[in-house]
Design goal:
Largest sheet: 7 strands, mixed
CATH topology: Metallo-beta-lactamase, Chain A
Number of helices: 11
Helix content: 25-40%
Number of domains: 1
Strand content: 15-25%
CATH architecture: 4-Layer Sandwich
Radius of gyration: 19 Å
Shape: globular
Length: 321
């Protein structure tokens, strides 16, 4: 597979990264401003679509008694739909309460049957609808072996019944879809789905239209996160579907990687200077100490989620000194 050859070339890519770092990239992220609304379909390329929404206040499930209101509009994970002559392949399925709406929208794209469901990682806003999809459609669910293990660990129903270690591929109706585990990052099971004929990837939460979140309980790593994005950039793509948000370009993914590396540098610098974790425990402290505003990450849909693990983020960078 082409992706395999690209990954093998990681050594050469290290030189390309060094060269790219000299190019001008926008330091500040400029996330899309969302407005409240229902589930919708966006066309990515011919035969590839993304199901986004619903767009809700407070969080990906809307406002609940235990949720705070950050004043922003949120959405559960982006679902990719690949159409082939022999049926459809889905990437993710959102929450259980979203499945009926997602499948109804998918039918407006094509009346062909859904043949496979792929998982980008185990988080509920992306794949807790698995059990419902399996019950409704009776199809196989494919995911990295760590995704299945995380499902079982947190006792979430709908774990993948077909797993792989590093890479897998589906061939359906003359279309190839590749599943690539390129390293730890958001979790230890992050999977990039590659549509080689369209030069497009679905990134899961390795890249989102907001601040990156590291799930340490789920095996994530801030340091390996950056190298995993580097591995992803070895793939031949020009279009990228994030875990949440608008479709991105390759340059936007490169810029995301650069600002994440800068965030890690700043966190490591705090540890080296002996700034204690208690000095970044609140959102206002973290914003000031890490200068999140100039990264564009001071008030994104995922900033408060990132803050929950800031202590572990600090510890990881402190231990890497």
């Amino acid at each position: 597979m082409r992706a395999t050859r690209a990954i093998v070339a990681a050594g050469l890519f290290a030189l390309l990264v060094a060269a790219a770092s000299t190019q001008q990239l926008p330091l500040k992220h400029d996330p899309e401003l969302l407005t409240r609304g229902p589930v919708r379909i966006d066309t990515v390329k011919d035969g590839l679509f993304v199901v986004r929404g619903p767009f809700l206040p407070c969080g990906t499930r809307g406002c609940t008694p235990n949720s705070g209101d950050d004043g922003l509009i949120h959405e559960p994970g982006d679902v990719a739909v690949r159409v082939t002559p022999e049926g459809l392949i889905l990437v993710d399925d959102k929450y259980p309460e979203n499945v009926a709406d997602v499948l109804a929208r998918v039918k407006t794209i094509s009346t062909r049957p859904v043949r496979y469901l792929l998982n980008s990682h185990h988080h509920g806003d992306h794949v807790s609808g698995n059990a419902t999809v399996r019950r409704e459609l009776g199809i196989d669910i494919i995911g990295h072996r760590n995704i299945r293990e995380n499902f079982l660990r947190i006792k979430q129903p709908g774990e993948p019944n077909i797993t792989f270690a590093d890479q897998a591929a589906i061939h359906l109706g003359g279309v190839e879809v590749q599943l690539l585990h390129l390293g730890r990052g958001h979790t230890n099971g992050d999977t990039v789905t590659y549509f080689p004929d369209l030069k497009t990837i679905h990134m899961g939460d390795l890249v989102i239209d907001g601040m990156p979140v590291i799930d340490y309980a789920g095996g994530g790593s801030a340091i390996e996160f950056v190298s995993t994005i580097d591995n992803m950039l070895t793939i031949d793509f020009d279009t990228a579907i994030p875990g949440h948000g608008r479709v991105m370009t390759r340059d936007e993914v490169r810029a995301y990687r650069a600002r994440f590396a800068e965030l890690n540098t700043r966190m490591r610098d705090l540890a080296r200077r002996g700034v204690p974790k208690t000095a970044i425990a609140t959102l206002e402290q973290a914003r000031a100490q890490l200068k999140l505003a100039d990264l564009g990450w001071d008030n994104t849909v995922s900033t408060t989620a990132w803050l929950r693990n800031i202590g572990a983020h600090y510890d990881e960078l402190a231990s890497a000194r």
